[in-house]
Protein backbone atom coordinates (compact mmCIF):
# COMPACT_ATOMS: atom_id res chain seq x y z
CA UNK A 1 0.00 0.00 0.00
CA UNK A 2 1.29 3.43 -0.91
CA UNK A 3 0.71 6.26 1.51
CA UNK A 4 0.92 9.34 -0.66
CA UNK A 5 0.45 12.68 1.07
CA UNK A 6 -1.21 15.75 -0.46
CA UNK A 7 0.78 18.01 -2.72
CA UNK A 8 2.54 20.75 -0.73
CA UNK A 9 2.36 18.72 2.47
CA UNK A 10 4.88 20.27 4.86
CA UNK A 11 7.43 17.79 6.22
CA UNK A 12 9.52 19.16 9.04
CA UNK A 13 11.43 18.54 12.23
CA UNK A 14 11.12 20.32 15.56
CA UNK A 15 13.31 21.47 18.44
CA UNK A 16 13.09 24.02 21.27
CA UNK A 17 15.57 26.61 22.52
CA UNK A 18 16.11 25.27 26.05
CA UNK A 19 16.64 21.76 24.75
CA UNK A 20 19.27 22.43 22.10
CA UNK A 21 20.89 25.85 22.34
CA UNK A 22 23.18 25.73 25.34
CA UNK A 23 25.17 28.97 25.62
CA UNK A 24 23.09 29.32 28.75
CA UNK A 25 25.03 32.17 30.27
CA UNK A 26 26.66 33.65 27.19
CA UNK A 27 26.26 36.99 25.50
CA UNK A 28 23.88 38.33 28.09
CA UNK A 29 21.45 35.41 28.38
CA UNK A 30 20.00 35.06 31.86
CA UNK A 31 18.85 31.95 33.69
CA UNK A 32 15.48 30.48 32.83
CA UNK A 33 13.32 28.54 35.27
CA UNK A 34 14.72 25.32 33.78
CA UNK A 35 18.34 26.41 34.39
CA UNK A 36 17.40 26.87 38.03
CA UNK A 37 15.09 23.84 38.36
CA UNK A 38 17.70 21.51 36.86
CA UNK A 39 20.01 22.44 39.71
CA UNK A 40 17.54 21.29 42.37
CA UNK A 41 18.51 17.90 43.76
CA UNK A 42 16.42 15.13 42.21
CA UNK A 43 14.72 17.34 39.63
CA UNK A 44 16.44 15.78 36.61
CA UNK A 45 16.89 12.03 36.26
CA UNK A 46 20.70 12.03 36.39
CA UNK A 47 21.12 15.57 37.65
CA UNK A 48 22.23 17.00 34.30
CA UNK A 49 21.91 20.71 33.54
CA UNK A 50 20.99 22.28 30.18
CA UNK A 51 24.02 24.59 30.04
CA UNK A 52 25.42 23.21 26.78
CA UNK A 53 22.90 20.72 25.37
CA UNK A 54 23.60 20.45 21.62
CA UNK A 55 25.47 23.76 21.60
CA UNK A 56 23.22 25.01 18.81
CA UNK A 57 23.88 28.56 19.94
CA UNK A 58 27.28 28.13 18.29
CA UNK A 59 26.41 25.41 15.81
CA UNK A 60 23.22 26.63 14.20
CA UNK A 61 24.89 26.58 10.79
CA UNK A 62 25.69 22.90 11.23
CA UNK A 63 22.06 22.33 12.18
CA UNK A 64 20.85 24.13 9.06
CA UNK A 65 23.17 21.81 7.13
CA UNK A 66 21.39 18.81 8.68
CA UNK A 67 18.01 20.25 7.75
CA UNK A 68 19.15 20.74 4.16
CA UNK A 69 20.37 17.16 3.97
CA UNK A 70 17.04 15.91 5.27
CA UNK A 71 15.25 17.99 2.68
CA UNK A 72 12.65 19.27 5.17
CA UNK A 73 10.35 22.03 4.03
CA UNK A 74 10.04 23.57 7.47
CA UNK A 75 11.88 23.82 10.78
CA UNK A 76 10.07 24.35 14.04
CA UNK A 77 12.13 26.01 16.79
CA UNK A 78 11.51 28.33 19.71
CA UNK A 79 12.84 31.66 20.93
CA UNK A 80 14.56 31.87 24.28
CA UNK A 81 12.96 34.70 26.26
CA UNK A 82 16.04 34.84 28.54
CA UNK A 83 18.27 35.44 25.54
CA UNK A 84 16.04 38.14 24.03
CA UNK A 85 15.08 40.03 27.20
CA UNK A 86 17.34 38.80 30.01
CA UNK A 87 15.39 40.52 32.80
CA UNK A 88 12.12 39.27 31.37
CA UNK A 89 10.95 42.83 30.81
CA UNK A 90 12.75 45.95 29.68
CA UNK A 91 16.00 45.94 27.88
CA UNK A 92 16.38 43.88 24.72
CA UNK A 93 19.63 41.96 24.25
CA UNK A 94 21.12 42.69 20.78
CA UNK A 95 23.13 39.45 20.83
CA UNK A 96 19.91 37.50 21.31
CA UNK A 97 18.24 39.24 18.41
CA UNK A 98 21.32 38.69 16.24
CA UNK A 99 21.33 34.95 16.97
CA UNK A 100 17.77 34.45 15.74
CA UNK A 101 18.26 36.84 12.80
CA UNK A 102 21.13 34.66 11.64
CA UNK A 103 19.20 31.46 12.20
CA UNK A 104 16.14 32.71 10.31
CA UNK A 105 18.24 34.16 7.50
CA UNK A 106 20.02 30.81 7.14
CA UNK A 107 16.71 28.95 7.00
CA UNK A 108 15.31 31.32 4.40
CA UNK A 109 18.42 31.01 2.26
CA UNK A 110 18.00 27.25 2.39
CA UNK A 111 14.35 27.56 1.39
CA UNK A 112 13.16 26.22 4.75
CA UNK A 113 9.99 27.68 6.25
CA UNK A 114 10.53 28.99 9.82
CA UNK A 115 7.87 27.89 12.30
CA UNK A 116 8.64 29.58 15.60
CA UNK A 117 7.23 29.22 19.08
CA UNK A 118 7.23 32.26 21.32
CA UNK A 119 7.13 30.31 24.58
CA UNK A 120 8.34 26.73 24.95
CA UNK A 121 8.50 26.37 28.77
CA UNK A 122 11.61 28.47 29.54
CA UNK A 123 10.44 31.51 31.49
CA UNK A 124 13.22 33.90 32.55
CA UNK A 125 13.86 33.16 36.21
CA UNK A 126 13.75 36.91 36.87
CA UNK A 127 10.01 36.75 36.18
CA UNK A 128 9.47 33.63 38.28
CA UNK A 129 10.84 35.59 41.21
CA UNK A 130 8.10 38.12 40.55
CA UNK A 131 5.40 35.45 40.65
CA UNK A 132 5.69 34.09 37.12
CA UNK A 133 2.44 32.96 35.55
CA UNK A 134 0.69 33.37 38.90
CA UNK A 135 1.04 37.13 38.62
CA UNK A 136 -1.49 38.79 36.31
CA UNK A 137 1.28 41.17 35.24
CA UNK A 138 2.49 38.22 33.20
CA UNK A 139 0.08 39.35 30.49
CA UNK A 140 1.95 42.65 30.22
CA UNK A 141 5.37 40.95 30.33
CA UNK A 142 4.45 38.37 27.74
CA UNK A 143 2.99 41.00 25.41
CA UNK A 144 6.14 43.07 25.63
CA UNK A 145 8.23 40.00 24.75
CA UNK A 146 5.88 39.02 21.91
CA UNK A 147 6.00 42.54 20.51
CA UNK A 148 9.80 42.55 20.49
CA UNK A 149 9.67 39.30 18.51
CA UNK A 150 6.98 40.52 16.11
CA UNK A 151 8.85 43.77 15.47
CA UNK A 152 12.15 42.04 14.83
CA UNK A 153 11.10 38.89 13.02
CA UNK A 154 7.44 39.46 12.10
CA UNK A 155 7.17 38.77 8.42
CA UNK A 156 10.24 36.51 8.26
CA UNK A 157 8.60 33.83 10.35
CA UNK A 158 5.81 32.22 8.36
CA UNK A 159 4.24 30.42 11.29
CA UNK A 160 4.07 31.71 14.84
CA UNK A 161 2.84 29.76 17.85
CA UNK A 162 2.08 31.67 21.03
CA UNK A 163 2.68 28.67 23.29
CA UNK A 164 3.86 25.10 23.07
CA UNK A 165 1.99 22.56 25.18
CA UNK A 166 0.58 24.84 27.89
CA UNK A 167 0.04 21.76 30.03
CA UNK A 168 3.71 22.03 31.01
CA UNK A 169 2.71 25.01 33.15
CA UNK A 170 0.22 22.73 34.93
CA UNK A 171 2.85 20.02 35.39
CA UNK A 172 5.28 22.63 36.75
CA UNK A 173 2.82 24.29 39.15
CA UNK A 174 0.42 21.52 40.23
CA UNK A 175 2.54 18.37 40.10
CA UNK A 176 6.03 19.80 40.57
CA UNK A 177 7.67 17.51 37.99
CA UNK A 178 8.62 20.40 35.72
CA UNK A 179 10.05 23.85 36.39
CA UNK A 180 9.42 25.78 38.54
CA UNK A 181 8.68 22.71 40.70
CA UNK A 182 5.59 23.95 42.55
CA UNK A 183 2.80 21.67 43.82
CA UNK A 184 -0.29 23.78 44.21
CA UNK A 185 -3.44 22.92 42.23
CA UNK A 186 -5.22 26.22 42.81
CA UNK A 187 -2.17 28.27 41.91
CA UNK A 188 -1.63 26.15 38.80
CA UNK A 189 -5.17 26.80 37.60
CA UNK A 190 -4.65 30.54 37.98
CA UNK A 191 -1.37 30.31 36.06
CA UNK A 192 -3.09 28.49 33.20
CA UNK A 193 -5.81 31.08 33.03
CA UNK A 194 -3.24 33.86 32.79
CA UNK A 195 -1.39 31.91 30.12
CA UNK A 196 -4.54 31.67 28.03
CA UNK A 197 -5.15 35.41 28.34
CA UNK A 198 -1.51 36.00 27.29
CA UNK A 199 -2.21 33.91 24.19
CA UNK A 200 -5.34 35.86 23.30
CA UNK A 201 -3.73 39.25 23.81
CA UNK A 202 -0.72 38.24 21.72
CA UNK A 203 -2.97 37.17 18.85
CA UNK A 204 -4.77 40.52 19.04
CA UNK A 205 -1.43 42.31 18.94
CA UNK A 206 -0.26 40.18 16.03
CA UNK A 207 -3.37 41.14 14.05
CA UNK A 208 -2.61 44.83 14.60
CA UNK A 209 0.76 44.34 12.90
CA UNK A 210 -0.97 43.44 9.63
CA UNK A 211 1.67 41.01 8.43
CA UNK A 212 0.93 39.81 4.95
CA UNK A 213 2.30 36.27 5.05
CA UNK A 214 2.86 35.41 8.67
CA UNK A 215 0.23 33.26 10.41
CA UNK A 216 -0.39 32.66 14.08
CA UNK A 217 -1.69 29.72 16.09
CA UNK A 218 -1.07 27.68 19.22
CA UNK A 219 0.30 24.21 19.89
CA UNK A 220 -1.70 22.03 22.27
CA UNK A 221 -0.82 18.38 22.80
CA UNK A 222 -3.60 15.85 22.93
CA UNK A 223 -3.15 12.62 24.84
CA UNK A 224 -6.69 11.40 24.60
CA UNK A 225 -7.74 9.06 27.39
CA UNK A 226 -10.30 6.31 26.95
CA UNK A 227 -11.76 4.06 29.63
CA UNK A 228 -9.97 0.71 29.43
CA UNK A 229 -13.08 -1.04 30.73
CA UNK A 230 -15.92 0.74 28.99
CA UNK A 231 -18.81 1.31 31.38
CA UNK A 232 -16.66 0.87 34.49
CA UNK A 233 -17.44 4.02 36.49
CA UNK A 234 -13.88 4.40 37.79
CA UNK A 235 -12.26 4.09 34.38
CA UNK A 236 -14.88 6.34 32.82
CA UNK A 237 -14.22 9.00 35.45
CA UNK A 238 -10.44 8.65 35.05
CA UNK A 239 -10.70 9.23 31.30
CA UNK A 240 -13.02 12.19 31.78
CA UNK A 241 -10.75 13.69 34.44
CA UNK A 242 -7.62 13.22 32.36
CA UNK A 243 -9.20 14.71 29.26
CA UNK A 244 -11.32 17.54 30.61
CA UNK A 245 -9.96 18.49 34.02
CA UNK A 246 -6.24 17.77 33.78
CA UNK A 247 -5.69 17.43 30.04
CA UNK A 248 -6.34 18.99 26.64
CA UNK A 249 -9.91 20.02 27.54
CA UNK A 250 -8.48 22.68 29.91
CA UNK A 251 -7.25 24.47 26.78
CA UNK A 252 -9.34 23.47 23.81
CA UNK A 253 -12.65 24.51 25.39
CA UNK A 254 -11.64 28.08 26.21
CA UNK A 255 -9.51 28.51 23.08
CA UNK A 256 -12.04 27.24 20.57
CA UNK A 257 -15.43 27.21 22.29
CA UNK A 258 -15.00 30.31 24.44
CA UNK A 259 -15.56 28.80 27.90
CA UNK A 260 -14.24 26.27 30.35
CA UNK A 261 -16.24 23.06 30.10
CA UNK A 262 -19.00 22.47 32.67
CA UNK A 263 -17.33 19.40 34.13
CA UNK A 264 -14.02 21.25 34.46
CA UNK A 265 -15.60 24.33 36.04
CA UNK A 266 -17.73 22.26 38.43
CA UNK A 267 -14.67 20.32 39.55
CA UNK A 268 -12.65 23.49 40.11
CA UNK A 269 -15.44 25.16 42.07
CA UNK A 270 -16.10 22.11 44.24
CA UNK A 271 -12.42 21.82 45.03
CA UNK A 272 -11.93 25.54 45.49
CA UNK A 273 -9.30 25.75 42.82
CA UNK A 274 -11.15 27.88 40.27
CA UNK A 275 -9.13 30.80 38.91
CA UNK A 276 -10.13 34.42 39.11
CA UNK A 277 -11.57 35.24 35.70
CA UNK A 278 -11.98 38.91 34.82
CA UNK A 279 -14.64 40.33 32.60
CA UNK A 280 -13.65 39.99 28.98
CA UNK A 281 -11.05 37.27 29.58
CA UNK A 282 -12.98 34.50 27.86
CA UNK A 283 -13.54 36.63 24.76
CA UNK A 284 -9.84 37.50 24.71
CA UNK A 285 -8.81 33.85 24.95
CA UNK A 286 -11.09 32.70 22.12
CA UNK A 287 -9.39 34.42 19.16
CA UNK A 288 -9.67 33.32 15.60
CA UNK A 289 -6.43 31.53 14.73
CA UNK A 290 -4.76 30.75 11.42
CA UNK A 291 -3.70 27.21 12.31
CA UNK A 292 -3.75 24.71 15.13
CA UNK A 293 -0.64 22.74 16.06
CA UNK A 294 -1.28 19.26 17.40
CA UNK A 295 1.47 17.50 19.30
CA UNK A 296 0.50 13.86 19.15
CA UNK A 297 2.41 10.99 20.72
CA UNK A 298 -0.05 8.42 21.95
CA UNK A 299 -3.49 7.74 23.36
CA UNK A 300 -4.07 6.24 26.79
CA UNK A 301 -6.53 3.60 27.94
CA UNK A 302 -7.15 4.24 31.61
CA UNK A 303 -7.44 1.45 34.06
CA UNK A 304 -7.66 3.03 37.48
CA UNK A 305 -5.84 0.18 39.13
CA UNK A 306 -2.81 1.14 37.07
CA UNK A 307 -3.26 4.88 37.46
CA UNK A 308 -0.80 5.37 40.26
CA UNK A 309 1.89 3.35 38.55
CA UNK A 310 1.42 5.37 35.38
CA UNK A 311 1.81 8.63 37.23
CA UNK A 312 5.14 7.49 38.59
CA UNK A 313 6.33 6.36 35.16
CA UNK A 314 5.28 9.61 33.62
CA UNK A 315 7.30 11.53 36.16
CA UNK A 316 10.37 9.46 35.40
CA UNK A 317 9.98 9.76 31.66
CA UNK A 318 10.15 13.53 31.71
CA UNK A 319 6.47 14.18 31.47
CA UNK A 320 5.82 11.89 28.58
CA UNK A 321 3.73 8.79 28.59
CA UNK A 322 5.73 6.99 25.95
CA UNK A 323 5.28 3.69 27.68
CA UNK A 324 5.18 1.35 24.75
CA UNK A 325 4.28 -1.47 23.94
CA UNK A 326 0.95 0.16 24.80
CA UNK A 327 0.95 1.97 21.52
CA UNK A 328 -2.43 3.37 20.50
CA UNK A 329 -1.36 5.66 17.71
CA UNK A 330 -4.27 4.44 15.59
CA UNK A 331 -6.44 6.68 17.77
CA UNK A 332 -5.01 9.68 15.92
CA UNK A 333 -7.92 9.40 13.49
CA UNK A 334 -10.40 9.75 16.35
CA UNK A 335 -8.40 12.60 17.88
CA UNK A 336 -8.42 14.56 14.62
CA UNK A 337 -12.14 14.04 14.18
CA UNK A 338 -12.69 15.22 17.73
CA UNK A 339 -10.78 18.43 17.02
CA UNK A 340 -12.99 19.24 14.08
CA UNK A 341 -16.31 17.93 15.33
CA UNK A 342 -16.25 18.65 19.06
CA UNK A 343 -13.98 21.68 19.17
CA UNK A 344 -15.00 23.11 15.77
CA UNK A 345 -11.39 23.60 14.73
CA UNK A 346 -11.96 24.54 11.13
CA UNK A 347 -8.53 25.90 10.36
CA UNK A 348 -5.53 24.06 8.94
CA UNK A 349 -4.02 21.58 11.39
CA UNK A 350 -0.33 20.68 11.57
CA UNK A 351 1.12 17.80 13.53
CA UNK A 352 3.72 20.03 15.16
CA UNK A 353 5.36 17.17 17.07
CA UNK A 354 5.51 13.43 17.02
CA UNK A 355 8.35 11.11 17.93
CA UNK A 356 9.72 8.41 20.15
CA UNK A 357 12.68 8.08 22.51
CA UNK A 358 14.67 5.02 21.50
CA UNK A 359 17.11 3.41 23.88
CA UNK A 360 20.23 1.46 23.16
CA UNK A 361 23.14 -0.14 24.97
CA UNK A 362 25.68 1.62 22.79
CA UNK A 363 26.07 4.04 19.91
CA UNK A 364 25.62 1.37 17.27
CA UNK A 365 22.30 0.32 18.73
CA UNK A 366 21.18 3.91 19.09
CA UNK A 367 21.94 4.58 15.44
CA UNK A 368 19.93 1.57 14.34
CA UNK A 369 16.56 2.94 15.43
CA UNK A 370 14.13 0.75 13.53
CA UNK A 371 11.65 1.11 16.45
CA UNK A 372 11.41 4.82 15.73
CA UNK A 373 10.72 4.19 12.05
CA UNK A 374 8.01 1.65 12.92
CA UNK A 375 6.45 4.03 15.42
CA UNK A 376 6.43 7.00 13.00
CA UNK A 377 4.82 4.79 10.36
CA UNK A 378 2.20 3.80 12.92
CA UNK A 379 1.34 7.50 13.16
CA UNK A 380 1.62 8.43 9.49
CA UNK A 381 -0.79 5.65 8.47
CA UNK A 382 -3.73 6.92 10.57
CA UNK A 383 -2.73 10.46 9.66
CA UNK A 384 -3.03 9.57 6.00
CA UNK A 385 -6.41 7.98 6.68
CA UNK A 386 -7.70 11.08 8.47
CA UNK A 387 -6.59 13.29 5.59
CA UNK A 388 -8.41 11.01 3.17
CA UNK A 389 -11.48 11.36 5.35
CA UNK A 390 -11.30 15.09 4.82
CA UNK A 391 -9.41 16.42 7.84
CA UNK A 392 -7.31 19.39 6.76
CA UNK A 393 -3.86 18.43 8.02
CA UNK A 394 -1.17 20.38 6.20
CA UNK A 395 2.06 19.14 7.71
CA UNK A 396 3.98 16.85 10.05
CA UNK A 397 7.03 17.65 12.21
CA UNK A 398 9.14 14.89 13.67
CA UNK A 399 10.43 15.42 17.18
CA UNK A 400 13.32 15.83 17.03
CA UNK A 401 16.09 16.92 14.68
CA UNK A 402 18.64 15.51 17.15
CA UNK A 403 18.91 14.04 20.63
CA UNK A 404 18.59 16.84 23.15
CA UNK A 405 17.73 17.83 26.71
CA UNK A 406 14.51 15.98 27.44
CA UNK A 407 13.45 18.07 30.46
CA UNK A 408 13.22 15.99 33.66
CA UNK A 409 14.57 12.96 31.81
CA UNK A 410 17.74 14.95 31.03
CA UNK A 411 19.89 13.55 28.23
CA UNK A 412 18.69 10.03 28.92
CA UNK A 413 15.72 10.01 26.56
CA UNK A 414 17.01 10.23 23.00
CA UNK A 415 14.32 11.52 20.64
CA UNK A 416 16.61 12.56 17.80
CA UNK A 417 16.77 11.28 14.26
CA UNK A 418 20.37 12.39 14.61
CA UNK A 419 22.50 10.99 17.39
CA UNK A 420 24.11 13.73 19.46
CA UNK A 421 27.54 12.94 20.81
CA UNK A 422 27.51 15.22 23.85
CA UNK A 423 31.32 15.00 24.19
CA UNK A 424 32.24 16.10 20.69
CA UNK A 425 28.93 17.68 19.64
CA UNK A 426 28.99 15.56 16.52
CA UNK A 427 25.55 14.89 15.05
CA UNK A 428 25.27 11.53 13.32
CA UNK A 429 22.24 10.55 11.23
CA UNK A 430 20.37 7.54 12.57
CA UNK A 431 18.63 5.02 10.35
CA UNK A 432 15.43 7.02 10.82
CA UNK A 433 17.06 10.13 9.32
CA UNK A 434 17.84 8.26 6.09
CA UNK A 435 14.32 6.83 6.10
CA UNK A 436 12.79 10.30 6.63
CA UNK A 437 14.78 11.71 3.70
CA UNK A 438 13.01 9.19 1.46
CA UNK A 439 9.60 9.92 2.95
CA UNK A 440 10.09 13.61 2.25
CA UNK A 441 11.45 13.04 -1.23
CA UNK A 442 8.57 10.71 -2.15
CA UNK A 443 5.97 12.70 -0.21
CA UNK A 444 4.98 9.46 1.48
CA UNK A 445 6.06 5.86 1.75
CA UNK A 446 5.16 2.39 0.73
CA UNK A 447 4.27 -0.35 3.18
CA UNK A 448 3.63 -3.96 2.36
C1 LIG B 1 6.79 17.67 24.23
C2 LIG B 1 7.55 18.96 24.14
O1 LIG B 1 6.96 19.97 23.38
C3 LIG B 1 9.00 18.75 23.78
O2 LIG B 1 9.70 19.79 24.35
C4 LIG B 1 9.44 17.40 24.29
O3 LIG B 1 10.81 17.23 24.23
C5 LIG B 1 8.73 16.34 23.47
N1 LIG B 1 7.30 16.57 23.53
C6 LIG B 1 9.06 14.91 23.88
O4 LIG B 1 8.67 14.69 25.18
Automatic annotation (TrEMBL):
Keyword match Hydrolase: yes
Keywords: Glycosidase, Hydrolase
Gene Ontology BP, a term: carbohydrate metabolic process
Molecular function GO terms recorded: beta-glucosidase activity
One Pfam family of this chain: Glyco_hydro_1
Superkingdom to which the source organism belongs: Bacteria
Family: Belongs to the glycosyl hydrolase 1 family.
Protein name: Family 1 glycosylhydrolase
Phylogenetic placement of the source organism: Bacteria, Bacillati, Bacillota, Clostridia, Lachnospirales
Amino acid sequence: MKYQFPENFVWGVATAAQQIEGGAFEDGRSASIWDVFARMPGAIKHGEVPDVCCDSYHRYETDIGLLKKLGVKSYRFSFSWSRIIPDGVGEVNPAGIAYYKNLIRGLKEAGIIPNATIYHWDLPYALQVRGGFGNRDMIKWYLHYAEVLFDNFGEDVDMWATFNEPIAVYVGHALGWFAPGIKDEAYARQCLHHLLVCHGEAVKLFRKKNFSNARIGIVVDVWKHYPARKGDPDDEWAALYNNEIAGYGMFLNPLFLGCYSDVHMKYMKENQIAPVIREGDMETICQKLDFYGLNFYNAIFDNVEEQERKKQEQAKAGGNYQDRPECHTEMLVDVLHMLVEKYKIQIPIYITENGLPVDGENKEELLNDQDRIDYVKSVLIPLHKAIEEGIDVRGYYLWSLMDNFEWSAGFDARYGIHYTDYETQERIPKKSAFWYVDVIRNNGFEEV
